[in-house]
Amino acid sequence: MECLPAGERRKIQLERLQALVRRVYETVPHYQRALREHGLRPGDIKSLDDLPRLPLTTKDDLRASYPFGLFAARLKDIVRIHASSGTTGKPTVVGYTRADIETWSEVMARSLSAAGVGADDVIQNAYGYGLFTGGLGLHYGSEKVGATVIPMSVGNTRRQVMLMGDFGVTALACTPSYALHLAEVIDDLEVERSRLRLRVGIFGAEPWSTNLGREIEKKLGIVAMDIYGLSEIMGPGVAMECPYKQGLHVWDDHFLPEIIDPETGEPLPYGEKGELVITTLTKEGFPLLRYRTRDVTILHDEPCPCGRTHVRMERIMGRTDDMLIIRGVNVFPSQVESALLEAGQAEPHYLLVVDRSGPLDYLEIWVEVSERYFADEVRELERLEQAFKRAIESILGISVKIKLVEPKTIERSQGKAKRVVDRRDVYKD
Amino acid sequence: MRVKQISIFLENKSGRLAAVTRLLGEAGINIRALSIADTSDFGILRLIVNDPARAYAALKDAGFTVSETDVIAVEIPDRPGGLSEVLNLLHENGVNVEYLYAFVSHSSGTALVLLKVRGIDRAVELLKAHGVKVPDAATVYNL
Question: How far apart are the CA of B135 and the nearest CA of chain A, in angstroms?
Fold first, then answer.
């Protein structure tokens, strides 16, 4: 499938698209309504050129249908549910049928193969297991290629290093920031490199620059490969870099990519930068028409020297919304805002400052101390800090630092407030 | 007997204390006593000034987060054990002292200590009943 001539692949894509539109029209009220509003019937999709006529799906559509409103299969046919964090404490819920899990394993296995990982490899899977799609997504794909998987999940770093040596791990899968952290702990423990057989890393779930990639490669003595995915579409394995590192191959027999102008929603040709939109061609449980990923990239359709004919996307260059990805967790300023409001019962001015301290990303939240919060005693302010910290951590699931700042410290802007300062430079090279 | 203390929230960064004192100086307000409680990120500056109401307004206008707190000033005999007697008295009667700092006194023979307590009226009564001098606010502002 990976090397299928473009014409044949397009034929498969069209058949699958037509079947998908028919399926969502019949099973998902949201899509039936949206298609009618666009004056479309399932039979109107005659060629792939009709794709831009289909309605776009946004994160808001997903939120509005919480929890199962966009499911196209009955719950009895859903065998797994995953979820990502949500803006108001409500997560985005996705469901997989047995066939979806099979597809996911297949695209994940393809991704691993593209990275040169196969049956002879021992994979240390340090993506988080659980509702987050990283851990289990990678796990099933690793088993599918016949590799030996060590389901480490994230954390307990010293133990990770010990087992990496003892089990002869050859491939590491985790977020790039955790890879850097592992490299540091390896140094701290003075583990001899000759004891490690590590040769390749599968890194994703958060944006990272090629510079960071080079740093990881140097520190761990491996090849760092970029993997792309998002829970709404499937999870890890939507697209994957090959050894030529000329962009990530999008497995477009399952996930049909487009680039649109984020302002106008108009489709843009190959080679132009814009927002990535994906249609899930084969998903049964939670299919999406033209889902706006908010990720900014460029698509290329010339074949890759590796022989794979799938469309390639460049490394993610940014976001069209204010979402942050910190240690694999999606963070929206609005989540922080609602937590602050809940804890403080008054509207705070706040700013999210993301930075990288050593290898790990950390999130500092600046909150202006208004008269309303201000107590004359340090311990009262510390109690307030703790209340903010706990409220935010319980929604985001990651630890944050609260910094109380003076009023008017945070820049006031006309119109859209600036809520985020990202000092990591993750999108730069 | 209640003395108005002005408290100001300050981030721990250079120039903030200077900004407050410059502002008060330009407004013609005289600082009688001050203390700072600080953590690694922020501090609370506490001030006794000759005109608390004007100081409060000036700081607020300049955008600072300000609050007004009632404290009591206690005259302590300037000899070993002087402060300890006062604190023991409060402790034995269940009055909790949240913080205190000393006042720079011009008159010799006594020192002024500013106390933030819970149950300020009871504390004043108690101190007076035991012969401890508690100067009134006007006296403190104009010392």
Answer: 23
**Mean predicted lDDT score pLDDT of chain A:** 91
Q: Are A20 and A281 in contact (CB under 8 A)?
A: yes
DSSP character at residue B97: E
Distance between CA atoms of residues B120 and B139, nearest Å: 18
pLDDT at B125: 92
- Whole-number Cα distances in Å, B77 to A203, A279, B74: 71, 83, 10
Cα A168 to Cα A138: distance, rounded to the nearest angstrom: 19
B67: CB partners within 8 A, 6+ apart? A371, A374, A375, A376, B6, B7
Please choose, from the candidates A348, A382, A406, the residue with its C-alpha nearest in 3D space to the C-alpha of residue B59. A406
Helix locations, chain B, DSSP H:
16-26, 52-61, 82-92, 120-129, 137-141
The answer to whether the beta carbons of residues A180 and A156 sit under 8 Å apart is: no
User: Does residue A167 belong to the interface with chain B, where contact is any CB pair within 8 Å?
Assistant: no
| Residues of chain A positioned with their CB less than 8 A from the CB of B69 | 376
Between A337 and A202, whose confidence is greater?
Answer: A202
A249 — phi, psi (to 5°)?
-75, 120
